Amino acid sequence: MIGGCALHKLGSSRRYKEIDYLVYDQSSNASFIHDRDNEKNYYNANGSLFFAEIWKMEENNIGEIASPQALLELKAFTFVQHCINRLFQKADES
Question: How many other C-beta atoms are found inside a 10 Å radius of the C-beta of residue 61?
Fold first, then answer.
């Protein structure tokens, strides 16, 4: 598990509706897979070099959530992507 729900499990007071997971889906090259019905987002390490690096970094992680270092890397990535896409309110929220 990655994203806001993972941060909440580590003690963040913010609540998040959707749950984000880092996956390695060999059948797809899509970087993002969204399951609206179940309010889940899947970040595909097979579809993104950045996500693949995080996947590799977490290779030996047996826990339910990504390591704090991986979560930090992913948060920074998300912030930068929102800024690049001029989604400044989303950047402020991340």
Answer: 12
pLDDT above 90: residue 13: no
Question: Is the model's pLDDT at 55 over the cut of 90?
Answer: yes
How far is 1 from 26, CA to CA, in rounded Å? 19
Q: How many CA atoms lie within 13 A of 80 on its CB side?
A: 7
- How far apart CA 12 and CA 6 sit, in angstroms, is 9
Q: Please state whether the predicted TM-score (pTM) of the whole model is above 0.90.
A: no
Contact between 19 and 3 (Cβ < 8 Å): yes
* 68 SS3 class: helix
State the burial class of residue 31 (Cβ atoms within 10 Å of its Cβ: 0-12, 13-18, 19+). Answer: middle
Q: Identity (one letter) of the amino acid at 58?
A: E
Give burial (CB, 10 Å; 0-12/13-18/19+) of 89. Answer: exposed
